[in-house]
Design goal:
heterodimer, A: alpha+beta, five-stranded antiparallel sheet, 18 strands, 50% helix, B: alpha/beta, Rossmann fold, Helicase, Ruva Protein, domain 3, five-stranded parallel sheet, two-stranded antiparallel ribbon, 9 strands
Chain lengths: 645, 315
């Protein structure tokens, strides 16, 4: 039956408007503002036309509007296809469709577009909230479809409930497709923005203030699950880039040596899994130090573990670490030279101080301790808001301002060491983390970003020295919140004292983590693991497709069998009546569900008196059997039906 | 206007066909409405006829009362009518030194309540309570109304000036509400040619004795309603509750009324079983005054009732 001519039931309009709004609204978050304004104007105009019962615009204005929409999108994005341009175009068309809702067919176009627009939201976000919103919107679109077609019930709640039941019934199928649909490594259309977005995070270089600015973010950098107990806090140093080149202000990684590091493990290896948020960098922020047994990833000569590609989406890595180790006891002379270099002329007072220490004692370890004592005994203050420093930054910091964040201490310490003739360098990374009691994951945030120092001592290799710990032991033992005085501008999320809110936050982060780990993190490897657990070794995509088809077919068969079983067993009388109706249908006479047998009989009498005489016997026998107090036997009915042409 | 031409479905020709024919000679061209009125009486319910003045409401009531051999009284409702004018008064007789009850017009087998919506709600409710209870209580003494007791109320469309519309709860007391409407062209011509029908209605001979009516009513009540038929009635009522054309659905009492009316309809057709056709035939008369249209707070429109019927498959 063609729907073109069927005029639209005006009572569907609220549904259609709601569908258009719900499927396009979230795109506001990433569309250009002018597009949102235009879309809003079209929607408002459509609502005005509808409530005032005004005539809809004719064909030519609509074509002009559509062309204008295309032109606007083409100007904005320099394209009509592609993710952003395509989605914007669809949003505009969806709203323009509201201006030509005349027939059932127009409404069907709108609903189809609505289902498609649902999908486009996943190009931008795959969070739980998006998932829930789209599930709810899907129920709404389905309800609109039901309402448009008359539906079993015409009250809004009943229609929504019906659509909800349909969606629930689709869930098993969704689950099967999710688990078994052949997965391709790498995204199909490009992953959502929120997976690719460059977040603030550690960078390759460090200057005063660069880590302090990270401390203001409560965003999660990575999550770690230890196979065993979580090591003590003061051992949780997550190594990022190592910087050994200093120009007086900024630290950068120097020319890296290509040789492999020598790591001597002095304690058993700790196994853990780290899920790193996208950060556009390659370092894996591994726990110091990576175990020599770790073979899957490259370990630089500076002990930084790197991934083959930069991490553009949330990725999980299995890593090994040793907490007690010796590292590069035989360091190359070139490297040691590089780690003694200081810019000439700058920071004379610091160099003078370091030289005096070195003169007092030949033991480099004593010099290190002197420097640490200098930090802890003089009036240094650990703060997020240090004063600005001049050209001789280290001198200014050490002798005048004495207020700084970890990068100040690490930088000053390394300069002092180098001036004293001890090879030293700055290491950036994260320190500590917060254990979520709900799921046991250790959460490391941007606010845990940290910088510390490493010195090389003959016979002992590179040793980690954290001058911040000398100034503020709490930073290492209790985390940044306990280390900073009250009133520092930390993110409110971190500083809340309420147990209840903190519990809520833990719970929410645990749920989010589970979603990321279990749902979004279901990649080809996980799928393979899952199938292997089911006893399917190394399935390729062909066999996966076959399995998928088989499972869905089985499910469908089971459902059909169940419905057949559940179907009210039609009694033989009804079966015979249906048989008679089928005979009529063959002659293009169809009985509406609400049409009584007698009404049907009258209709046939009017159109085909010959048939009516034969059919009268059927009706008579059927009605007598179904509605009278003393049903006869069915033989008569059977005979009457047999006589039908 | 029998429903079916299939002979064996009807055990005998309609038992009251001659009565319907006789009434049809008075109210020309309104066979269906006459049939509905008789069905309403046989189902033991009261009838509300709503239409413009002058389309034959009162004549129909007259003709029915005469043909059924029933004692007939008529109350013209006006805005100053008092409850006592309907149910009667006790007057003091000086010579006997006691009160004597003068029964009002309600003590009759057929009461024609003409233009019921012209009276004040208080007076309306006096009659409507009598309809519901089948008895009247005056000064502590309960007086049983005669049997059968059948009220035919007429009312003008509510938008006319000077009317007190019956509230929904009162409308529910009427089993059926019918509209007469203008006669067809040919019927109108015959009416114009024949002259006033009112006098002829008053001279009609009784076709049935009043005493026989309770027995007929018992026969109607015995008409078989098979489980599939009751399923159908239930499906209709449930659909009326889910249909957005109406403010609210049909009550359980409306369901009983629908079944009783369908029984009477089937019985008039000479059948011992109710068919879905009977339900569909009486549904507009039974349901329209019990439903409120969502738009404009009016009675449900007949198109909405048709849509309701079409939304329910026959089980």
């Amino acid at each position: 039956m063609s729907t073109r001519s069927v005029s639209l039931d005006y009572r569907c309009l609220p549904w259609l408007f709601a569908t258009a709004l719900a499927t396009t609204a979230p795109h506001v978050l990433h569309q250009p503002i002018w597009l949102t304004l235009v879309a809003g104007a079209i929607f408002a105009y459509a609502v005005w036309l509808w409530t005032r019962n005004q005539r809809l615009p004719g064909r030519w204005p609509m074509i002009a509007l559509a062309l204008l929409a295309c032109a606007g999108v083409a100007l904005e994005f320099r394209a009509l296809l592609g993710r952003d341009a395509g989605v914007s175009l669809l949003v505009l068309f969806m709203l323009l469709k509201l201006l030509e809702l005349r027939s059932q067919r127009d409404a069907m176009v709108l609903i189809t577009l609505g289902y498609f627009l649902l999908l486009t939201h996943y190009f931008y976000s795959q969070s739980i909230a998006t998932g829930l919103w789209l599930l709810a919107t899907m129920v709404l679109v389905t309800a609109t479809l039901i309402r448009l077609n008359g539906g079993p019930a015409s009250r809004p709640l009943a229609t929504l409930r019906y659509a909800g039941v349909l969606t629930l019934q689709a869930l098993p199928l969704m689950l099967i497709l999710y688990l078994l649909f052949p997965r391709i490594s790498g995204p199909l259309w490009g992953l959502p923005q929120d997976a690719h977005k460059a977040r603030s995070g550690l960078s390759e270089q460090m200057s005063p203030g660069s880590i302090a600015s990270l401390a203001l973010s409560s965003e999660i950098a990575f999550r770690v699950r230890f196979k065993t107990e979580i090591p003590p806090r003061n051992k949780l140093y997550w190594r990022g880039p190592v910087m050994d080149y200093f120009d007086g202000r900024t630290w950068r990684p120097g020319v890296s040596a290509t040789r492999a590091p020598e790591i001597q493990a002095l304690s058993p290896a700790i196994s853990y899994e780290s899920t790193i948020e996208a950060n556009q960098q390659r370092w894996l922020l591994a726990l110091d130090a990576p175990s020599p047994e770790l073979k899957e990833f490259a370990i630089k000569s500076t002990l930084t573990v790197t991934a083959p590609q930069s991490i553009n989406q949330r990725t999980r890595f299995s890593l090994l670490a040793v907490s007690d180790y010796r590292f590069n006891v035989d360091e190359a002379t070139a490297v040691l030279q590089q780690n003694l270099a200081l810019p000439e002329q700058l920071n004379p007072r610091s160099r003078e101080l370091a030289r005096s220490w070195r003169k007092a004692s030949a033991d480099p370890l004593l010099t290190v301790n002197k420097a640490l004592n200098f930090f802890s005994e003089e009036a240094f203050i650990y703060t997020l808001e240090p004063p600005l420093l001049g050209e001789n930054a280290i001198d200014d910091f050490l002798f005048q301002t004495r207020r700084g964040f970890c990068e100040h201490y690490a930088a000053a310490f390394v300069v002092l060491m180098r001036a004293a003739g001890i090879p030293a360098r700055v290491v950036a990374g994260y320190q500590g983390g917060e254990r979520n009691p709900i799921d046991g994951f250790l959460i490391v945030r941007q606010s845990d970003a940290h910088a510390w120092a490493e010195v090389w001592l003959a016979g002992r290799g590179w040793i980690r020295v954290d001058p911040t710990a000398a100034v503020s032991p709490n930073r290492v033992e209790g985390g940044i919140v306990s280390a900073l005085p009250l009133g520092e501008p930390l993110p409110p999320l971190l500083t809340v004292r309420s147990e209840w809110i903190r519990g809520l936050r833990y719970r929410w982060e645990a749920i989010n983590n589970a979603w990321n780990q279990q749902v979004l993190g279901y990649n080809p490897e996980r799928q393979r693991e899952f199938l292997q657990r089911l006893g399917l070794a190394a399935p390729d995509w062909q066999s996966l497709t076959a399995i998928l088809a088989a499972v869905i077919a089985t499910l469908m068969l089971a459902i059909s069998a169940w419905t057949l079983y559940q179907r009210p067993r039609t009694d033989p009388l009804q079966r015979l009546w249906q048989q008679a109706l089928r005979r009529l249908a063959r002659r293009q006479i169809h009985c509406a569900p609400w049409e009584t047998p007698l009404a049907l009989q009258r209709r046939i009498t009017a159109s085909d008196p010959q048939l009516a005489i034969l059919f009268a016997a059927v009706v008579e026998s059927y009605l007598a059997n179904r509605y009278s107090a003393r049903p006869g036997d069915l033989r008569q009915l059977r005979e009457a039906i047999a006589k039908l042409p | 206007m029998p429903l079916t031409t299939i002979a064996s479905l009807t055990s005998r020709p309609g038992p009251l066909d001659h009565l319907l024919v006789a009434a049809g000679k008075i109210i020309l061209g309104k066979d269906r409405e006459i049939r509905q009125a008789v069905a309403c009486l046989l189902a033991g319910g009261h009838l509300l006829i709503e239409d413009l003045p002058g389309v034959g409401k009162t004549t129909l009531a007259h003709a029915l009362a005469r043909l059924l051999g029933l004692a007939f009284s008529r109350i013209q409702f006006t805005s100053d009518l008092l409850p006592a004018d309907i149910i009667g008064v006790s007057i003091y007789e000086r010579d006997k030194g006691s009160f004597r009850f003068l029964p009002g017009p309600v003590f009759s087998q057929v009461v024609l309540a003409d233009e019921i919506n012209r009276a004040t709600p208080k007076t309306q409710s006096a009659l409507l309570e009598a309809m519901e209870e089948q008895q009247v209580t005056i000064e502590g003494e309960t007086r049983i109304l005669p049997k059968p007791f059948f009220v035919i109320a007429t009312q003008n469309p509510a938008h006319q000036i000077g009317t007190f519309a019956l509230p929904e709860s009162q409308l529910d007391r009427f089993l059926m509400r019918i509209e007469l409407g203008y006669p067809e062209r040919s019927a109108e011509r015959a009416l114009l040619a024949a002259g006033g029908q009112r006098e002829r209605a008053d001279q009609l001979p009784a076709i049935i004795e009043a005493a026989a009516i309770p027995a007929l009513q018992a026969q109607v009540a015995a008409v078989h309603a098979a489980p599939p038929l009751i399923d159908y009635v239930q499906a209709l009522i449930e659909a009326s509750r889910e249909n957005i054309a109406f403010q609210h659905g049909l009550s359980p009492r409306a369901g009983l009324a629908l079944l009783a009316a369908a029984r009477a309809w089937a019985w008039l057709d000479g059948r011992q079983m109710v068919l879905p056709d009977d339900v569909q035939a009486v549904l507009p008369a039974v349901a329209r005054h019990r439903l409120r249209s969502l738009q404009g707070n009016m009675l449900a429109r007949s198109e909405d009732i048709t849509a309701l019927i079409r939304s329910v498959p026959i089980p």
